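G., the chain you wanted modeled:
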Amino acid sequence: MKILVLGCKGQLGRCLNDQLLNTVYDVVYTSRDQINIVDFVATKNQILAYSPDVVINATAYTAVDKAEDDQEMANIINHLAVENIAAICDELDCWLVHVSTDYVFDGMSKFSYREDDHTNPQGVYGVTKLNGELAVKSFCSKYIIIRTSWVFSEYGNNFLKTMLRLSAEHDELRVVSDQIGCPTYAQDIANAIVRVIPVLMAGHASGTYHYAGSKPCSWAGFAEAIFTEAVALKFMARCPKVTMITSDEFPTRAKRPTNSMLDSSLFEKAFGGGLSDWQYGVRSAMFALNAKSQ
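Predicted structure as tokens:
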């Protein structure tokens, strides 16, 4: 069975490489250098030439604040290019695994979001990701959409690596405490996708699922957990002070959801394997970062 991974140099793409390394699948990894998804015609010709059984779309425009001023490109990458990929997959009669986000919700709920809850994105990034989801549903007959949140790993730019960098420069960090979400280790997402593949090939129905960390926390709580683990692993000598602030004290170009908690019970029931233990993921990411620094 042939799997095509789009976006292999991104955070999730690199984790997919790690998780698919020892499988029996014939995996083709492509970055923007091989398949530039904004070139719709070339993308179609290249995917048709590969003729995969499964396409994993790990590409996305993820610069949430920048998207507010770069709406055209965010829409092309997160929506129109996804529509093109979905139509190609439908033509090939192959499965499309598409990764989406908690930003499709407005964050006003008091409860964890379920897959069938009302979507109401508050910024350009969320709007374009939701439109990408709708395009997948409209143009592809065999698909799985996986919404996740607060993704981190040893790769790319993410909250964990930012906190570690800032802790080396400051004794005190001001971190937002009134936004709640479920941190998710990208290696766990990649592993979850690997678990999904054989179930899809066995004739599973298309659908949308949430896959995120099993324990919610605030950004400030996440930062404190990162620093505590870093000290325990002797990654740093001492924890910087975390001062909790409100979102109003840390204004951003794009509005962030106050509640990003995702209920992942449907995914666990359908595919098994447990959810992302982000605290263990923090430890694993630090071990990986330490190994790379040796």
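The longest helix spans residues 71-92.

Shout if anything looks off.
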